[in-house]
Design a protein that fits this description.
InterPro entries: DUF2147. This protein has an 8-stranded antiparallel barrel. The radius of gyration is 18 Å and the shape is globular. By secondary structure, it is mainly beta. It has a single domain, classed as Lipocalin, CATH 2.40.128.
Amino acid sequence: MKNWMLTIGLCFLTLGTIQGQSVIGKWKTIDDATGEAKSVVEIYEKSGKIYGKVADILRADHKKDICVKCEGADKNKPILGMVIINGLKKDGSEYSGGTILDPTNGKKYKCYIELESADKLKLRGYVGISIMGRTQYWTRVKN
C-alpha cells in the first residue's frame, strides 16, 4: 500500500512539474543550415502576452549587425536587443496568435511556440497556415 501511495505521489509531482514549466527564459537559437548556435533570445511576458528579444549574438562577426532588410521601425536598427517575437497568447499547451521576425531576411511570419520538454522549445514560423512553414528547436540556456 505504501508503494502505491509513493507511486501515485510521484505521478502527481511529475505532472505538476511538467505543467509548471514555462517558455519564459533564455533560449539558444540554432542555424538551420549549419547547425551552429546563432543567438540567445530572451522570452518574457508583458501585459499577458509573450515576447522575445535578441539578448546575445553568439557569432563574434555578427554582434554589430543591423536589420537592413527590415521594414518600418526596425529598419537599420541593431539586431542585438531587437524584439523578434511579438504578441503570443497562451492557447492550451502552446502560445500562438503573434509574429516572429527573421532579421536575416527582414520578413515577419505568424508563429507559435510550445515546450517539447523543460529545455527544448519548438518554434514554428509560417505564412498563411502552419503547414506552409518552418520549424526550429531552441534549447534553454542554463543560468
